[in-house]
Design brief:
The complex is a heterodimer.
Chain A: H1 2-34, H2 36-39, E1 43-46, E2 49-53, H3 93-109, E3 118-119, E4 133-134, H4 136-150, H5 154-164, E5 178-179, H6 180-189
Antiparallel strand pairs in A: 1-2, 4-5
Chain B: H1 2-30, H2 38-52, H3 62-86, H4 102-113, H5 123-126, H6 129-159, H7 169-195, E1 204-208, E2 214-218, H8 223-231, H9 252-276, H10 280-307, H11 310-314, E3 317-318, H12 338-351, H13 366-377, H14 388-408, E4 413-414, E5 417-418, H15 421-447, H16 449-453, H17 460-474, H18 489-518, H19 535-569
Antiparallel strand pairs in B: 1-2, 4-5
Helix pairs in contact in B: 1-9, 2-7, 3-4, 3-6, 3-18, 4-18, 6-7, 6-8, 6-14, 6-18, 7-8, 8-9, 9-10, 9-12, 10-12, 10-13, 10-19, 12-13, 13-17, 13-19, 14-15, 14-19, 15-17, 15-18, 17-18, 17-19
Classes of the chains: A mainly alpha, B mainly alpha.
């Protein structure tokens, strides 16, 4: 019996070193050597300041910026240390009340948007709370507000949306989408 | 819609293209035959055996195999438990995570050793980099390799003639991760990084957002863990949001690779089984039964998520698919994945006992979420966990031939071995232990204040949260209706027990069956033999899985997901 116990402990330690330290550290070394930008978080800098990651959504509240989706990450949303979904049930009163409130504020803020036509991603929280993207329908619904706030024509803003929009990966995978941070930076860069 | 269905079918085809050759490769690895990696890995393998001080040439009877496995798993549990308790004073802790409490450390250690990856803690704050790597990544490989080793030993028991030995546990374990998992993981991890999955020893990035607010982004050695998390059907995320988090699963392409990685080995093992049994059709039959059940599950989950939640429409949202939006029930889903990839991911990870999620299962429409729960409750035999799914399904195959034998008055035989009362008792014990585990523990939770206090939702969804937790624990899945507060003493303890039941009360009878079958004589097929390599047997196997699994849970499902579905359509809120 002792023989089996000893073998178990030794095998546990050997595999811990190989799979728990050598493997992840080797991958870290290779990743940092070959693709440091991605390995560090696909960060975007403006004037030496890290303004965000192209993969992580952030909170936008001003009228001149496109807004991301509602977020359940942290108290104010888009908390990078508290990722998560609302996990509310499809029959949850809290969910329905939150969606109703979001529909009311979005239709008030965005000219031309009426209850019943609000894109569903605009009023539902994402799985991570850090979703960097919105749908094209969501972006188009915000064009009039952003254009008015920036003194641009609707057409000019719409062109920016279409420029930033991404198609499906490899033409078939996932869904078309607009990265909110990239879109807002592109608008700021116009001036 | 037609495009989505084409994409789902496309996934199935790509999976088959990967699984078939992988299955043959695995048969060569476990048969001790030479593969293209052997010249590089064989010397490493020898060094590992020498360091661990084990005799790789000695085959084991089932008792020694089981004892070695249990002692090894216990050693892993103890090491992991100690690391979790002491992580506050151990190195590589840039986020200053503190040592876990005894009950949470017990729950977490059991969870990773049993290939469940139930997470009662939030990864980005409660676990140090050392634990993410030397704790969780390590056990992701080891618990998965343990599962595969058992499956291979079980196949040997079924296919060998009059031999008591069923293989060497250390060799099966080591070959699984060394020849199969680690090489694939290194490639996958680096590809994930190229797509944006982070891989660094830093802990966080401080961001000054465009509007001037401070945002802290947690980072870490994510890609290396992500790779084995799916391939080993483990599922424990580096971050709380799991594969919904863009740093774990940045693009639809990584999402697609993740769902392929989850089912690659479980699907491949059906062909390994066919190859090792000397009749590939035996494996194809098992694959076909799994594929049928899986396709049904994907269809149901996609259909209900696509149709959406009428409560959202009543609140003023537009869920209709158009050229500019995917529509459907997007609560808890990421835009880049949409309905199709989210439904596929939800189905793949719940049939495969992989606790990963790329969105919230709890916020799915009731019957889609209910389907996820049913996938787990069927015993995780529809592809299932790596290794665990195959040996689970083969236990059902033994039940199926027995039932067929009763129906038509034939002697129950499987692969030329007569199935006796002893094997039947062991098989029934294994199956009933799982089902009783789920139902009894759920019953305890719904009649105790501590159990009820953990719910986020009232009404039928609250029952589903509890039921899902124990199904997930016993099924060694690890996903959750995550509204449930799993961090309380009641749930860390009871779900910990559920995970132990699901893993070890199944493994031991399975190895005992392997030992008993291996020692039997092979009888040549006669006119009384019920053939197990035909489409008829596929139907029989599917029928037995559904009858045993689904009927056991139908009453409680009626009170949970089915009732919630009806109430959702009549607009009743909780």
């Amino acid at each position: 019996m002792n023989k089996y116990v000893l073998a178990s402990i030794r095998m546990a330690l050997v595999t811990l070193v190989l799979l728990g330290l050598v493997y992840p550290l080797a991958v870290t070394g290779l990743a940092q050597l070959l693709m440091p930008a991605q390995a560090d978080g696909s960060l975007i800098t403006r004037g030496g300041v890290t303004v965000g990651s192209s993969l992580i959504g952030q909170l936008f509240t001003g009228a001149k910026y496109f807004h991301g989706r509602p977020s359940a990450a942290g108290g104010d949303g888009y908390d990078g240390t508290a990722s998560g979904a609302s996990n509310l049930a499809p029959t949850s009163k809290a969910l329905v009340d939150r969606v109703k409130a979001a529909v009311a504020s979005e239709t008030a803020e965005n000219p031309g948007l009426v209850p019943g036509s609000v894109p569903v991603d605009m009023v539902t929280a994402s799985g991570s709370g850090l979703d960097p993207d919105i749908t094209l329908a969501n972006a188009y619904a915000q064009v009039a507000r952003v254009a008015a706030a920036r003194g641009l024509t609707d057409a000019a803003v719409r062109t920016q949306v279409d420029t930033v929009a991404q198609g499906r990966d490899l033409g078939v995978l996932g869904e078309p989408r607009v990265n909110v941070l990239r879109l807002n930076l592109a608008l700021d860069d116009l001036k | 819609m037609a495009f989505d269905i084409a994409r789902l079918v496309g996934y199935g085809i790509v999976l088959l293209i990967i699984a078939y050759p992988l299955g043959h490769y695995m048969a060569r690895v476990f048969g001790g035959e030479s593969t293209w990696l052997t010249p590089v890995l064989r010397p490493v393998e020898r060094v590992i055996y020498r360091l661990a001080g084990i005799d790789a040439d000695q085959e084991m009877p089932w008792t020694v195999y089981a004892i070695s496995l249990l002692l090894f798993n216990f050693a892993c549990f103890t090491l992991l438990y100690l690391m979790l308790r002491l992580q506050g004073v151990l190195p590589l802790n840039p986020t200053h995570a503190v040592g876990m409490s005894p009950d949470l450390a017990f729950n977490t250690a059991v969870s990773f050793v049993s290939n469940t990856n139930w997470q009662a803690y939030a990864g980005e704050t409660a676990a140090s980099h050392l634990l993410q790597m030397a704790g969780f990544t390590w056990q992701n490989f080891i618990s998965a390799s343990t599962g595969v080793a058992i499956a291979i030993a079980f196949i040997r028991g079924l296919t060998r003639r009059e031999v008591r030995a069923i293989g060497n546990f250390w060799v099966d374990l080591t070959r699984t991760w060394l020849y199969i998992m680690a090489p694939i993981c290194i490639v996958l991890a680096l590809f994930y990084v190229s797509q944006g999955t982070v891989q660094t020893l830093a802990a966080q990035v401080n961001v000054k957002t465009v509007e001037g607010a401070a945002q802290v982004l947690r980072v870490g050695p994510v890609a290396s863990q992500e790779a084995i998390k799916e391939l080993g059907t483990n599922g424990g995320g580096f971050f709380n949001a799991n594969s919904a988090h863009p740093f774990e699963n940045p693009t639809p392409l990584t999402d697609f690779l993740q769902v392929l990685a989850v089912l690659a080995i479980p699907a491949g093992l059906t062909f390994t089984f066919g190859k090792m049994s000397g009749n590939i059709k035996q494996g194809v039959v098992v694959f076909a039964a799994m594929a049928l059940l899986f396709a049904t599950s994907v269809g149901i989950m996609y259909g209900f998520e696509r149709a959406g939640n009428p409560n959202l429409t009543r609140a003023g949202a537009d869920q209709v698919a158009s050229a500019t939006q995917t529509g459907g029930n997007t609560e808890g889903k990421e835009v880049r994945f949409g309905i199709e990839e989210s439904a596929l991911y939800g189905s793949v990870t719940t049939v495969a006992s992989n606790g990963a999620v790329d969105g919230s299962i709890s916020s799915m429409t009731p019957l889609a979420g209910g389907m996820a729960m049913l996938n787990i409750s069927l015993g995780e035999v529809v592809f299932g966990g790596v290794g665990a799914g195959l040996y689970g399904m083969l236990v059902f195959a033994i039940l199926a031939v027995f039932i067929a034998g009763l129906m038509v008055g034939r002697t129950p035989e499987y692969l030329g071995k007569k199935i006796g009362p002893k094997e039947m008792k062991l098989a029934m014990f294994a199956v009933l232990a799982l089902e009783a585990g789920i139902l009894v523990l759920s019953a305890v939770a719904v009649v105790t204040p501590a159990g009820l206090a953990g719910r986020l939702s009232a009404g039928p969804h609250g029952l589903s949260e509890i039921l899902y937790a124990f199904a997930s624990g016993v099924g060694n899945n690890g996903s959750a209706f995550a509204g449930l507060n799993a961090g309380t003493l009641f749930y860390t303890t009871t779900v910990g027990i559920a995970m132990l039941i699901g893993r070890y009360l199944f493994i031991v009878p399975v190895l005992a069956i392997a030992g008993s079958m291996g020692a039997k004589k092979q009888v040549p097929p006669s006119a009384g033999t019920f053939p197990t390599d035909t489409p008829l047997f596929v139907g029989l196997l599917v029928g037995v899985v559904l009858i045993v699994g689904a009927l056991t849970f139908f009453p409680v499902f009626a009170l949970g997901p089915i009732l919630e579905h009806l109430l959702m359509h009549s607009g009743v809120l909780f």
